[in-house]
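For this section, I looked closely at a protein sequence along with its fold in token form, which I now present.
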Amino acid sequence: MAYEIPVTQARAELADLINRVVYGGERVVVTRHGKPLVALVSAADLARLEQEQEQEAAEEQVISSVSSLGSVTSASGERGRFGLAAEHRRPEQRG
């Protein structure tokens, strides 16, 4: 859970807030009119969050690429050429 503080109070206590984040491992959310405005997090937390975001983006790209391939059917004669004895059929194709 993050520590919340109004922006007017945060201005007066910035040095203390930085120490809480860096040395206390806290996360501070600065609010305006009770709504979150910005967050103070350590540089290590920021690096971890950015790395997680990059990993998620890469995973989404792979999923999108695989999904765009769709189903691929082999050319007639290829099964015999490679000695394939079975073929996958979707449940709706089974008779």
